[in-house]
């Protein structure tokens, strides 16, 4: 899950620069179920509390049972995002 807020500049940067990257998109779409969560709307409010998200953007990788595998905060360029995804896949 990618937690973000509309007012968050680094969240927008992640959405516009990193996630559209072809390699990032292919890797994430092939290996993960991707969910973008606005922390101020709908279920985002309760999910933010459930996963104790306090800074944005925050990526939370979870098991099908809802257990956290890995958490990452802050903006990541495509190469760093690829490294993060590979790290999670190797856990």
Topology:
Layout (H helix, E strand, L loop, with lengths): L1 E3 L4 H10 L3 H10 L4 E3 L4 H8 L7 E5 L5 E6 L4 H12 L2
Parallel strand pairs: 1-2
Antiparallel strand pairs: 1-3, 3-4
Helix pairs in contact: 2-4
Summary of the model, kept short:
This protein has 91 residues and is α+β, with helices and mostly antiparallel strands.
Describe the structure.
- The protein has 91 residues and is α+β, with helices and mostly antiparallel strands.
- It is built from 4 helices and 4 strands.
- The chain has a single domain (2-89), classed as Glutaredoxin.
- It is 44% helix and 19% strand.
- The longest helix has 12 residues, at 78-89.
CATH architecture field: 3-Layer(aba) Sandwich
Write out the strand line-up for the largest beta sheet, numbering strands in chain order: 2-1-3-4
Secondary structural class: alpha+beta
Helix and strand pattern? EHHEHEEH
Quaternary structure type: single chain
CATH superfamily: Glutaredoxin
How much β-strand is present in the residues?
15-25%
